[in-house]
Specification:
- The protein is an alpha+beta fold and 105 residues long.
- It has one domain (26-104): Beta Barrel (OB fold (Dihydrolipoamide Acetyltransferase, E2P)), CATH 2.40.50.140.
- Helix content is 20%, strand content 48%.
- The protein contains 1 helix and 5 strands, in the order αβββββ.
- A 5-stranded mixed β-barrel has the order 1-2-3-5-4.
- This is DUF5666 domain-containing protein.
């Protein structure tokens, strides 16, 4: 009985570790493209960015995530931007939590 409990606990631990490693997000990756739309939020906004490869990213930009008001910029529709941050994908959408606004043109 003790061995069964130990094996079960070990199996549960291994399953947990595997699930955590497969859910990792791409941290500090860059996305560049044109701002297509902007939707305001509580302490920032979400910008829809279309890349040259026609990929669409929803970039969440907030004062807290970019390191304070000195690094925060309000993008406009039509701006060509480059941002860095933590990227992840849902079933049909690409997202990035912006930690740095690299350039705005």
């Amino acid at each position: 009985m003790k061995n069964l409990k130990r094996i079960s606990a070990l199996l549960l631990l291994v399953t947990f570790m595997i699930s955590c490693t497969t859910m990792k997000n791409d941290a500090n990756t860059a996305v560049s493209g044109k701002v297509e739309s902007i939707e305001g939020g509580k302490d920032g906004y979400t910008a829809k960015i279309t890349t040259d490869n026609k990929e669409v990213y929803f970039a969440t930009i907030s004062i807290v995530n970019v390191g304070g008001p000195q690094n925060y910029k309000q993008l406009k529709i039509g701006d060509v931007v480059s941002v860095k941050g933590e990227k992840w994908k849902t079933e049909d959408e690409n997202h990035i939590k912006v930690t740095e606004i690299v350039s705005v043109k």
